Amino acid sequence: MEYFPIFMRLTGEPCLLVGGGEVAVRKARLLLSAGARLTVVAPDLVPELTELAARGEISHVAACFAPQQVGGQRLVVAATNLREVNRLVSQTAQAQGIPVNVVDDPELSSYITPAIVDRSPLVIAISTGGGVPVLARLMRARLESLIPAGFGRLARFASRFRDRVKQRFTDVEQRRAFWESVLEGPLAERVMNGDESTAESELLQRLAAGDSTPAGAVYLVGAGPGNPDLLTFRALRLMQQADVVLYDSLVAPELLELVRRDAERIFVGKQRANHSMAQEDINRLMLRLAQQGRRVLRLKGGDPFTFGRGGEEIELLAQQHIPFEVVPGITSASGAAAYAGIPLTHRDHAQSVVFVTGHKKDGSIQLDWPALTRPDQTVVVYMGLAMAAEICAAFIAHGKPADTPAAVVHSATTERQRTLVGTLQTLPAQLAASGIGSPALIIVGEVVSLSSRLGWFRRVEDAAVTIGQDS
Ligand code: SAH
């Protein structure tokens, strides 16, 4: 380790910043956020620094750097673009044993500044020893995405109870178990969602009961249409915390790989007309697992509340007072639309969009056809593949022109995506010839015609190509 990492208390301490340009602004902001009493030495200041000086947040010495300014400082930063001045600042400070940093010049610096992820009081500092600052910044970007925005709030919340928890659990192991169950459980999610008062009463209850066992919870998480990059930060985080995961065939295999490695995986596969586990059994299984104190992740394709039976899955949990949370996901219609180049609305083609399911509990299709065949409207049919021919025919029978553009998008957003584009008239034959299976959406409306221009992801198989090839 070439540099020794420390966190230094600067609240109220005198610090010197030499330089009045844009780089100095960045440094000034950082030092001020740590509470430093900052003096800025520079003949001229950029407007932002002038403003800080006017508000009394910094003292400005309107002059060139002079060595006597260094005396008594706790920390010195040189941020001028004159190497000679920077060198003089550095030498003067080092001669007096005062830590000095020259921006972007490790050679002249006695300390270097890390890239920072700030979730105060949680702060992560990253350094590559000054060698590859870009790498440190890339690392930082990754961590930023992994650490929830509410983490600072959680850290502040937890520190308020530190002493009380210490008193209640004198055994170190028990104390650790308690904090782990709090910081990785439903209580922490509550705090990060901004509901601190409920979280506080739950925590106090558990403290009073001396309960250090983990609290069970169910997370109903939308995993998006299949491409792992389209997960939300929250979904990914919960996937990496879960003790047990319930998933079905709509969850793409590449998504399942992101679940915590030692989590138990339970396939509750549901396929149309071939339910391998009844919905009631899934509901009861989730309840039982949560009652055992496990963090249960119910991973759903797309969005849990869009044709995902999400509402049914949490009803029993709500009844039994099991903590649960619903995390939205990108619904497959949005995924398919973006990746196939089919805007769902468009000022020239569609003023509204309707999501319908082509399949009812009893297997029939009963749709509000007069509403669906309105002009200037996009219709997206979920679970409609098996009935595609009937659906296309019904659109036509109810007055939609037979040459209305229509598409099927299979496994949208994944590398298996296939897009068939044709019309209400041609689509059934194209589908039959293509051998495309589930999961797939049918999209009907003028907007489909834009896919030949706006489609950017994989090949769009239009009517001419597919029919010409396969029949
Ligand atoms: N909750 C899910 C929908 C579940 S219903 C969502 O919000 O997307 C199941 C239907 O969703 C499938 O029959 C299919 O029509 C559609 N679907 C799900 N993922 C898909 C994908 N990657 N590509 C195309 N259609 C998909």
Topology of helices and strands:
Layout: E1 14-18, H1 22-33, E2 37-41, H2 47-54, E3 58-61, E4 75-78, H3 83-95, E5 100-102, E6 115-119, E7 122-126, H4 133-146, H5 151-160, H6 162-168, H7 172-183, H8 186-192, H9 196-209, E8 217-222, H10 233-239, E9 244-247, H11 253-256, E10 264-267, E11 270-271, E12 274-275, H12 279-291, E13 295-300, H13 310-319, E14 324-327, H14 332-340, E15 352-357, H15 369-372, E16 377-382, H16 388-397, E17 405-410, E18 418-423, H17 427-434, E19 440-444, H18 451-454, E20 460-462, H19 463-470
Parallel strand pairs: 1-2, 1-4, 2-3, 4-5, 8-13, 8-14, 9-10, 9-13, 15-16, 18-20
Antiparallel strand pairs: 6-7, 11-12, 16-19, 17-18, 17-19
Helix pairs in contact: 8-9, 12-13, 17-19
The protein binds S-adenosyl-L-homocysteine.
The strand count comes to: 20
The parts where pLDDT drops under 50 for at least 5 residues are 465-471
Strand residue percentage: 15-25%
Task: Name the hetero compounds present.
Answer: S-adenosyl-L-homocysteine
What is the total number of structural domains? 3
Tell the overall outline. globular
Count of helical regions: 19
> Whole-number average pLDDT?
91
| Spatial order of the strands forming the largest sheet | 15-16-19-17-18-20
* CATH-defined architecture of the largest domain: 2-Layer Sandwich
The CATH H-level superfamily of the largest domain is Tetrapyrrole methylase, C-terminal domain
- Structure classification: alpha/beta
Q: Mind summarizing the main beta sheet?
A: 6 strands, mixed
Distance between the termini: 68 Å
In CATH, the topology of the largest domain is named Methyltransferase, Cobalt-precorrin-4 Transmethylase, Domain 2
Q: Regarding CATH, which class of the largest domain? A: Alpha Beta
* Fraction in helix: 25-40%
- Gyration radius from CA atoms, angstroms: 30 Å
